[in-house]
Structures are given as structure tokens and as C-alpha cells.
Design a protein that fits this description.
about 25% strand; alpha+beta; seven-stranded antiparallel sheet; 32 strands; globular; 21 helices; about 35% helix; about 850 residues; nine-stranded antiparallel sheet
Length: about 850
């Protein structure tokens, strides 16, 4: 009885955890196993296809993932450094595996550091000619000069260059655990991702025996842990094997009686990496032969896996040293992690993992009034929702899934979440699975501070720091500007240059750097950490503002405009795209505020203020729309996915229904023209914009569209293909519906939809370092509880009611809404 009770506790851990609070579990599950059709998908099932034109280095670079089950039915787990997807077939568990720094490209490719770094065109001298063409009305000449001079020689595709210097995020291989079981006659199958405990829990019944698998990745221990158990002893007959990255050269060796170690180098850049694997068994026998671990008649088996590369982040790279990003010994790090994990054992690893994860995840609780929870497979739940069935639990689940993904893919000490977070199943992938700097990377971090995951911002902050020194070279070469910037696509090796294409609708984005720098101020604004601002943040903001000022065209009439400029991925080269002006407006305001906080650079602050005063203002066009370009060429039938010109509405703060009502009306016209459909991430952005317009019902419509039409069955966002930014945008947008603090005051329930008539949320964060809990009934605020973490005064707003509140650090304040007024409750 004791054995069965323990098993059931493991299988239904998320249900048990939430039973203590009478809340349904935050989890979703599949009732059918996957096949093994996607096994080693980079071969396409036919290794001979690699000959001739089908080059292995580009495998996976397709508009749709070649392994549909991986993309829509696998369950992702991660710890910021290691990522895995659990597929859950009965015959053999298949796990795709990632180490976030395993990247091709960089200065250590065969042609060396000069080949990698010396790619900036010296184009700054062309700016005067381009601006002269604009002044003379010669649009074609201005566009031609921009296209010819503001790209580089670096291709974006691996098959177009040898060696491929930009590089891409690549797989760390796959693991297989053959079970000797058949799915024939199998019953009670359930494969569940528990958001409450960051575990995959799988169970099924076969020949009267209940089988269980539990998988998680520990951040404290940096290991992937997989436990295979059953309701009867001696039922584990397993064969463990590893399929390595196919564009690597390595050796797989036995390590002791129970371990394997794969030591390898990527073929493209000689990046060294090590994957270590070990089996801990109870009962039975274990053989370690021919690169496989064979277990017979064991009661329980726990597999431990860890990995590392020789990559070392570098804020001050030596442009002459091909190994400037090399500095870690993966042989030593993985050996130490494995020995410690094996010493701790499964029970301690699990306890440590749940404690570490829950300390972040449990900060925020959301209850949208769900009263009719029904436990059902996620495929059925989504099917019903797509057909119009109300499901408040699914909406809560989706919200928390975004927070789960951020914790799993962005923890201090590593790189930020990329286009797919940390999860990738092939040699190459869509858009190199890179750091896309024209909204995608930024969107990944929209929910970080507001949903109380400030620690998860640190990988982004550190990544931005890697761009400064290379970005100074790019800023000087292309624009003759001080400071730093970057371009549309980034890698882990400080790449800041535009790519080869002359298509400037996507390849010309000098405001990528300033946009990233606004996140530095956002982190300070939420935390009010003056030491961070002084020692790290301010220099990043200041140098970005300097770039923005120098980039602008100071016209003879005294005005400043962005020439040349574009609206990312949309439209012509322009002499004043609204998006660019909005980003510049934002970064200059950030720099002004930061200099005031630190009481420095009064003279430069004055210059920033003068530039702002003469920066070309927002313009309203003939349809009543906020214009996207300097001329009124917007098409009301244009439903393009990018809504760049509304940057000032979101994520910026220069447009608001409260402070700029007329411009907000013009922004609304833009969103009406663009429509309520799009790719997944685009619907996520529009959701945030409708929330900022404080139209809760329209924001809710976008949220519903995102869930119905932009979400795969495992809740991943799809562009298509899978692209994680929409998940983060969705979670951020829901938060914006419930709480906003970007306009200098904290606003309660600014975009509450009718569908969420009663509910509560706790643990949200507002700028000024306030934690906020909200309760509402019948569509009206009931109570707000503020915890002041910095002891600063704040302005509160609900509808038309306002309240000024002086606070003391560490104290809580209860606010109620009565008789049309906000009142502080004693």
C-alpha cells in the first residue's frame, strides 16, 4: 500500500499540491502517446539525403517544423541553461535536448576573427547624400543609396557561406529510453506538464502494472532528471542511448559502470561541449556496453543528464582573438555537476528543484472566477474553446504558462530566451533560432517585471552588455555616431551588423539598440535599484541616447527627423518613420529620467530635452489614423502583422487615452484597419495595444484569437512555425488588462473585460517597486492591496477616481472603491 500511495503521489503531484488550497492544478495533459516518427529528425529518416544539394548544415531551416509532433505535442522543461522536450511514447521515451550556448558561428570559424568582425561597411559619409535626395524629393535615389550602403557582406543562411559566420542555435542531440513495452493493450495514458512543479508526469497501465515517468530540469543542480518507476518491482527493462548533434565531431565513451560521456566539437567553429549521462538504479542489473546503458529487472531507474560548452560571455571582446568567447572547461563543469547530483539522489534533487522553482512561480496567483473546472486533455479543451465554449481555467493556464516558459528559459547566469526560448530539435532552424531585435527578443521580456519575475531579466541585461563594444563599431561605421546600436539579428558572439540583404524593409533597423536599452530603464523603474542604475544601467542608457541623437537628421529648419529610416518589415525607406521617432522619444525620456535620478550629466540632459522638443511629432492622416510614415500613404486595407507606429502606445508610454486622447483615437483607427487576426506574436502585440487603449472587451477578443488561432496544442505560440514571443506577449497583455503603471501612476483594472466579471490577482508588480493584489466583483474593483518595497509616494487611479498615497518601505496599504472614490482603509 505504501508503494502504491507513493506512486500515485508522483503521478498526480500537481493535483495533490493544489488540493491543499482547493484550487485546480495548473497543468495540461495529453491522453495519447506520440510516435517515434520524428526521431533524429535532421536525417529526415534518410541519411543519404545529406549528399548533393541537401546540405546537413541547413537541416531544419524550414517554414514548418519537419517534426509536427515535437512542435505541437511535446512538453517543454528547462532551467535557463538546459532545455528538453518530453515526447512520451510507450515503446521508447524520446527526449530532445538543448544547451543554450551551443551555437555555430562566431570569430572562431576557420577564417578567423578578422573575417568575423570586419564586416561593417563605412557608410556614414553617404548619409548627407541620402538626406539631400530626400530634400530634393528624390525618393528613389534615397532608397537606392540606403539599400546599397546599409547592409553588409554577411549572409543569413548557412548554405550560402563556408564557414557560416553568423551561425545559429543548434541541437544538443536526443536521448532514447527503449522500454520493451508495446502500446497495444495500454490504457489510462496521461502525459502532463505541471506548471505548479515544473515537471512532466507521465503514466499508463499495461498488463495490470501502472508505469510512471517523471522528468524535470533542476536550476540549482543543472541536471535533467528522469525517473522511471512502476507499481510492481522488477518492471524496468530499459535501454538508454544518445543520438548526438550530427554536425559535430565527437566520441561517446563509457564512464564507470553506470555512465556515458560525449565529448565533441561543433564542425563549424570548434566549440567544445560535453554531454554527461548516468543511470541510478534500484534493483536489477546494469550493463554499459557499445555506448548504451542496458537495465534489466530494476525496480526504479533515475537518469541524470547534464551538459556544458566552452562558451563564456564577454562584455569586452578582443576583436583580434578568435577565442574571445572561449573560457569554460565543460569537462570539469559537467563532471562536478554530475557527481553532486548523483550524491544528492532523486528525492533531494526533486525537493530542491520544486523549492527553487516555486519561489518564483508562486509569486503570482490569478483567479478569473473559474467555477466549472473539468479535468480533460488539452486537445479537447482547446477544441471546445475554439468552438466558442467559455473556459476561464484555460485562460488562467495560458497566462501562467507564459510565466512558466520565462522561468524555464531565462535564469541568471546564462543567455536570454531566444526565438524558441531554449527548445530546438534540429541542426538549423527558422531565422537561425536567433535573437531577433526588431520586436521578438523585446517581447520575450514584456512580462518579466510586471509578473514578478525580475530575476529573469538578468540574462537580457547581460546580453545587452555584450552588444556595446561591437555596437560602438557599428554605430560609428554606418552613422558616424557616438554610443552603440545593433541590427535586426543577433547571436551569442556580439554580432551587431546588418546582414547581407538589400531589402531594407527588414534589414535596416538601427533603432534595435535603443529599443533594447529601454528595457534597462524598465528594470530600474520596477525595482528602483539605484546601485544597478549607477553601476550598470545608466551607461547603457546614456550611450544609447547619444547614438539616437547623432543618428537624427538636424534639418535646416531646426527640426529633427530620422533619415533614412524604416518601419520594420513593412514599407519603404523613409525620412521619418513614426516607429523610429517613437523609440528615440522613449530612450531620450529614459536617459533624462536616469540622469535626474543619479544627479549627473545636467548639460547632456539639457541637450536631450532640446532634441525632444524639436523631434518630429506624431501625425494623423486622412483616415484619422496615426501615420506610419512621414507622408500619408497608409492603406486602410493593409493588415500587416507589424504595428510599429504604435510603439508609443505599447511598449512605449508617449501615447495614452488619458494623456493624449486624440492620438489614442488615431491609434485605435490603426488597430481597426489592421484587423483582429495575424500571426501568433502579432496578436499578442495587438492584445497589449488594445489593453493600453483601455478597451477590455476588444483586448479580450484578441486574447481569444491568440488562443484559438495562434496557439499549438501544447500551448506554444505559432507564427507559424513555433515562435515563443507570442506566449510572452499574451501573458504581458493579460497583465496590462489588469494593471498598468507606465504613465506615472498605478491604474487598477484599466481594461477589464465583461468576461472576467469577478476575480482576483495577487503578486503583480507596478513601477516604483510596488507589489499589487486586486480583487473585483461584478466588474468593479473591490479592494487593492499595495506593498511598498521602496517607500516612495504613488498616484493611484481607477476609472476617473484618483488617490495620492505616501508610503513607507515594507508596509501594506488597503485601497477600496466606494461611492465613486478610492479610499485608503485603515
Amino acid at each position: 500500500m505504501k508503494k502504491i500511495s507513493t506512486l500515485l503521489l508522483g503521478l498526480s503531484a500537481s493535483l495533490w499540491l493544489n488540493a491543499q488550497t482547493q484550487q485546480p492544478p495548473l497543468s495540461y495533459w495529453f491522453d495519447k502517446p506520440t510516435s517515434l516518427n520524428g526521431q533524429a529528425v535532421w536525417y529526415g529518416g534518410k541519411p543519404d539525403m545529406w549528399k548533393g544539394e541537401n546540405k546537413p548544415e541547413s537541416a531544419g531551416d524550414t517554414a514548418r517544423n519537419p517534426d509536427a509532433e515535437w512542435e505541437s505535442a511535446s512538453l517543454p522543461i528547462g532551467n535557463g541553461s538546459l532545455g528538453a522536450n518530453i515526447l512520451g511514447s510507450v515503446e521508447a521515451e524520446r527526449i530532445t535536448f538543448n544547451e543554450k550556448t551551443l551555437w555555430r558561428g562566431g570569430p572562431n570559424t576557420a577564417k578567423g576573427a578578422d573575417y568575423y568582425w570586419n564586416v561593417n561597411k563605412q557608410s556614414a559619409h553617404v548619409l548627407d547624400e541620402i538626406r539631400k535626395a530626400f530634400a530634393e524629393g528624390d525618393q528613389k535615389k534615397a532608397e537606392r543609396l540606403t539599400c546599397e550602403n546599409f547592409n553588409s557582406e554577411v549572409p543569413y543562411e548557412s548554405y550560402r557561406e563556408n564557414p557560416f559566420r553568423f551561425g545559429n542555435f543548434t541541437t544538443a542531440g536526443e536521448f532514447y529510453v527503449e522500454t520493451g513495452l508495446s502500446a497495444v493493450g495500454m490504457t489510462e495514458y496521461r502525459r502532463e506538464l505541471s506548471l505548479d512543479s515544473a515537471r512532466v508526469l507521465m503514466q499508463f497501465k499495461k498488463d495490470g502494472v501502472k508505469y510512471q515517468r517523471t522528468s524535470f530540469i533542476s536550476y540549482p543542480a543543472n541536471v535533467l532528471v528522469m525517473r522511471f518507476a512502476a507499481s510492481e518491482k522488477g518492471k524496468q527493462n530499459l535501454t538508454f542511448s544518445y543520438a548526438p548533434n550530427p554536425v559535430s565531431t565527437g566520441t561517446l565513451s563509457a564512464e564507470g559502470k553506470d555512465g556515458l560521456v560525449y565529448r565533441a566539437k561543433l564542425d563549424n567553429n570548434q566549440m567544445e561541449y560535453v554531454v554527461r549521462m548516468r543511470a541510478l538504479t534500484q534493483g536489477g542489473t546494469l550493463q554499459n556496453t557499445d555506448g548504451k546503458l542496458r537495465i534489466e529487472d530494476a525496480d526504479e531507474v533515475v537518469f541524470l543528464i547534464t551538459a556544458d560548452t566552452d562558451y563564456k560571455i564577454n562584455f569586452n571582446p578582443d576583436f583580434s582573438n578568435p577565442k574571445t568567447y572561449v573560457g569554460v572547461n565543460p569537462e570539469q563543469t559537467t563532471a562536478a555537476w554530475m557527481e553532486e547530483a548523483a550524491r544528492q539522489g532523486y528525492k533531494t534533487l526533486l525537493q530542491e528543484h520544486v523549492q527553487d522553482y516555486a519561489a518564483l512561480f508562486n509569486r503570482v496567483k490569478l483567479d478569473l472566477g473559474n467555477k466549472d473546472y473539468r479535468d480533460m486533455p488539452i486537445t479537447e479543451r482547446l477544441h471546445l474553446y475554439r468552438r466558442g465554449k467559455k473556459d476561464l481555467y484555460l485562460e488562467e493556464l495560458y497566462y501562467q504558462f507564459g510565466r512558466y516558459l520565462l522561468i524555464a528559459s531565462s535564469r541568471p547566469g546564462n543567455l536570454p530566451a531566444n526565438l524558441q526560448g531554449i527548445w530546438h530539435n534540429n541542426v538549423d532552424g527558422p531565422w537561425r533560432v536567433d535573437y531577433h531585435n526588431n520586436i521578438n527578443l523585446q517581447m520575450n521580456y514584456w512580462p518579466a517585471c510586471s509578473t514578478n519575475l525580475g530575476e529573469c531579466m538578468w540574462p537580457l541585461i547581460d546580453f545587452i552588455r555584450t552588444l556595446v563594444k561591437p555596437g560602438e563599431k557599428t554605430a560609428q561605421a554606418y552613422f558616424g555616431a557616438r554610443g552603440w546600436t545593433t541590427s535586426i539579428s543577433g547571436n551569442i558572439f556580439g554580432f551587431t551588423t546588418p546582414l547581407e540583404s538589400q531589402n531594407m524593409s527588414w534589414n535596416f533597423n538601427p533603432m534595435a539598440g535603443p529599443w533594447l536599452a529601454t528595457h534597462i530603464w524598465e528594470y530600474y523603474d520596477y525595482t528602483r535599484d539605484k546601485m544597478f542604475l549607477k553601476e550598470i544601467g545608466y551607461d547603457l542608457i546614456k550611450s544609447s541616447a547619444q547614438f539616437a541623437v547623432d543618428y537624427l537628421w538636424h534639418k535646416p529648419d531646426g527640426t529633427y527627423t530620422a533619415a533614412p529610416s524604416t518601419s520594420p518589415e513593412h514599407g519603404p525607406v523613409d525620412q521619418g518613420a513614426t516607429f523610429v521617432h517613437a523609440v528615440i522619444h522613449e530612450i531620450l525620456l529614459n536617459a533624462i529620467d536616469a540622469s535626474r535620478v543619479l544627479r549627473v550629466d545636467a548639460k547632456e540632459r539639457k541637450q536631450w530635452q532640446q532634441v525632444l522638443a524639436k523631434l518630429m511629432p506624431y501625425q494623423v492622416g486622412r483616415y484619422g489614423q496615426l501615420m506610419e510614415w512621414s507622408t500619408d500613404i497608409d492603406d486602410p486595407k493593409d493588415e500587416h502583422r507589424h504595428v510599429n507606429h504604435l510603439f508609443g502606445l505599447h511598449p512605449g508610454h508617449t501615447l495614452s487615452p488619458i494623456t493624449t486622447p486624440e492620438l489614442s483615437k488615431a491609434s485605435r483607427v490603426v488597430l481597426e484597419h489592421r484587423g483582429d487576426g495575424a500571426t501568433g506574436w502579432s496578436m499578442g502585440w495587438k492584445l497589449n495595444q488594445w489593453a493600453r487603449l483601455q478597451d477590455g472587451n476588444h483586448a479580450y477578443l484578441l486574447f481569444g484569437n491568440l488562443l484559438k488561432n495562434g496557439t499549438l496544442n501544447n500551448l506554444w505560440d505559432t507564427h507559424p512555425p513555433f515562435q515563443i514571443d507570442g506566449n510572452f506577449g499574451g501573458t504581458a497583455g493579460i497583465t496590462e488588462m489588469l494593471l498598468q503603471s507606465h504613465m506615472g501612476f498605478i491604474q487598477f483594472l484599466p481594461a477589464l473585460p465583461d468576461a472576467w466579471a469577478s476575480g482576483s490577482v495577487s503578486g503583480l508588480r507596478a513601477r516604483g517597486n510596488f507589489e499589487v493584489d486586486l480583487t473585483w466583483e461584478n466588474g468593479q474593483l473591490k479592494e487593492a492591496v499595495l506593498t511598498s518595497e521602496a517607500g516612495e509616494p504613488c498616484s493611484l487611479r481607477y476609472g476617473e477616481a484618483t488617490l495620492e498615497l505616501k508610503t513607507k518601505k515594507g508596509q501594506k496599504y488597503s485601497i477600496v472603491f466606494e461611492n465613486g472614490q478610492l479610499l485608503q482603509r485603515d
